Amino acid sequence: MVRVRYALVLVFLLLFIGVMPFSAYSSRVVQIGAYNTLSVALMDNGSVWTWGDSPMGSSVPVMLDVSNVTAVAPGMNFILFLKNDGTVWACGDNRCGELGDGGNTSSYDHAVRVGDLSDVKMIAASGSTGMALKGDGTVWAWGSNNYGELGTGGTPGLLSGGSYSFYPVQVPISDVTSITAGDGNFFALKSDGTLWGWGSDDEGSLGVDVSDSGITVWTDISNNTRAVAAKPIQIPLSGVTAISSNGENTLVIINGSLWAWGDNTYGQLGTGNTISAGQPVKVKGLTDVTSVIAQTTYSVALKSDGTVWAWGQSMAGGGYLGVAGSGGVTTNTPAMVSGINDVTQLAGGYAHILALKSDGTVWAWGSNKYNELGNGRAGTGSLTPVQVMIDSQTASGAVVSVTATAPRITNGQSNDLNTFSIGVVILFILAGGFVYAFLLRKK
Questions:
Q1: Phi, psi at residue 190, to the nearest 5°?
Q2: Rounded Cα–Cα distance for residues 102 and 79 (Å)
Q3: pLDDT one-digit tens code per residue, 395-417
Q4: Using the 8-state DSSP alphabet, how is residue 337 labeled?
Q5: Cα–Cα distance between 297 and 249 in angstroms, integer?
Q6: Sheet of 362-366, strand order
Q7: Hey, CA dihedral for 110, 116, 121, 126, is it positive or negative?
Q8: pTM reported for the whole predicted model
Q9: Strands across the sheet with 48-52, in order?
Q10: 107: buried, middle or exposed (CB in 10 Å: 19+, 13-18, 0-12)?
Q11: In degrees rounded to 5, what are phi and psi of residue 331?
C-alpha cells in the first residue's frame, strides 16, 4: 500500500510538471536592437523575436525562423544574424545588396547566408549597409555605398543615384576590435585604442573638420552637398570605450563621461543649449556611463547603477522620452527616466526606446504608431516604460516564419499549446509505466 501511495505521489508530481506553463522553462532576452520603427530581441536559446513596422515585424513579438543566433543587428527593413558557428545570415530587403548573397532578390520567408564570411565576431547594420568584424581584425561590408559606407574609396553613390556591393568586400582597415554603425557611417576601434570612421560626415558627425584631407564634399544629383569620408580616417580622440552616431550627431564614452558633437537643434547633445558643435563637447551632469544611444532628435544613456537618462526631444512629441515634466519642451540636459531601473542594455528607434533589465525582461516607451511597443495597440504610445511580452512571458506571441504574414500558428496563440499537449501525453505514458511497475513489484 505504501508503494502505491508513492506511485500516486510520483504521478501527481509528473502531471504537475506537465501542466506547468511553458514560461517555467522560458528563455531570457540577452540582446535588444532597434532601427527606425523595427525592434528585435535575441533570447539565450538562440531564437530571435521581432515586432514593429517592417516586412518581418508584427503588432506583437513574433519569432523568426532562424536559430543558433548569438547576435543581431537590425537595419532599414533587414536584419543581420550572427550564428554560433561564426557565419552571418540575413533576411529582409535586398534591393541594395543588404543580404550580401551576391544578388538583389529580397528574402522575407527565410534567412540567407551573407557571402562566405566565417570566424565573424561582431556585426553591425546602418541603413541599407551591413558590416562584419572577423576574428583576424579585418572588417567586411556590403550593401549601399551611397555615402561611402563601404569604406573602400572611390565615388559615393549619391552622385549617380546609387552604388552597391552585393557581396562582402574588405574595408581597408586592420587590427580592429569593435565596430559600430551610425546612420550612413561606421566607426571602428583598433587594438591600439585609436578610433576610426568613414561614410557620411553630415553635421560633422565623424568628428573631423571638412578641411581634413580624408573628407570630400560632394554635390549629389539633387544639388545637395554632403561631406563624405570614402575611406576610414582617424578621429582625434583617445580613450573611447563606446560610440553611437545617427549620421548627424555623435556621442562617445571616455572614462565614464559623455562627449558629443554634431547637430543640436533639439538639445540632443545634452549641453544645456541648442547650439550645434563641430568638435566634441562634454555632456552635462553625467558620470559612470556604460552605454549610449544617439538618435536624430534625442539621446539616451545608461549608467553603471542601472538608471536610464534621456535628453533632446522625441519625434513622437512631448513627454515620450520618459522624462517626467518634459512636456513638449526640449530637454537640453540629461534627466532620469522614471519607472525603470536595473537596466543592462539600451536600444533606440526613430521615436521609441527599449531597455533590457537584469531579469531578462524588455521594456519600451515612446511612440506606438507603428507597433513599436509590441503590445498590439497601435497608435497608443506610452510616456513611461511598459513591459514588452516576449516568448513564453506571454500567451499572445506566435511562432512565425521570417515574414510575419505566414504564421505557423494561425490562431494567435503561442506554441506553448503544442508543447503542453505533447508533454502531457508523454508524461501520462511515463506515469502509467511507473504505476504499473510499482503495482507489479507489490505483487
A1: -100, 165
A2: 17
A3: 333 343 433 322 222 222 233 33
A4: P
A5: 9
A6: 343-348, 352-357, 362-366, 382-388
A7: negative
A8: 0.83
A9: 29-35, 38-43, 48-52, 62-63, 398-399
A10: buried
A11: -100, 105
d(CA 142, CA 135): 18
pLDDT class of 430 with cuts at 50, 70, 90: low
What Rg value do the Cα atoms of the chain yield, rounded? 24
Q: What is the mean pLDDT of residues 48-57?
A: 86
**134 strand-pairing partners:** 120
% of residues, the chain, pLDDT over 70:
79
pLDDT at 356 over 90: yes
Report the alpha-carbon distance of residue 343 to residue 359 in Å, rounded: 9
Closest among 180, 212, 184 to 196, alpha carbons compared: 180
User: Strand runs (DSSP E) across 114-224, as ranges?
Assistant: 120-126, 129-134, 139-144, 164-171, 176-181, 185-190, 195-200, 216-219
3-class DSSP state for residue 31?
Answer: strand
Q: Which three cell numbers stand for residue 302?
A: 545608461
Contact 279, 237 (CB under 8 A): no
The model's pLDDT over 71-83, given as tens digits with 9 standing for 90+, comes to: 999 999 999 999 9
- Strands of 352-397, DSSP E: 352-357, 362-366, 382-388
Q: Position of cell 519569432?
A: 63
pLDDT tens readout for residues 278-321: 889 999 999 999 999 999 999 999 999 999 999 998 876 656 78
Beta strand pairing call for 62-63 and 48-52: antiparallel
Architecture of domain 237-367: 7 Propeller (2.130)
In terms of pLDDT, which residue wins out, 198 or 315?
198
What are the percentages of helix, strand and coil residues in the chain, rounded to 5? 15, 40, 45
Q: How far apart are the first and last CA of the chain?
A: 11
Average confidence score pLDDT of the chain: 83
Domain locations in the chain as residue ranges: 237-367
User: Burial, 135: exposed, middle or buried (Cβ in 10 Å; 0-12, 13-18, 19+)?
Assistant: exposed
Q: Which residue has the cell 532599414?
A: 76
Nearest-10 Cα torsion for 309, 315, 316, 318: 60
Of 153-157, 163-167, 211-215, which has the strongest mean pLDDT? Answer: 163-167
Confidence band of 429 (pLDDT split at 50, 70, 90): low
Q: How many of the other CB atoms lie within 10 Å of CB of 23? A: 14
- Rounded CA-CA distance 101/89 in Å is 9
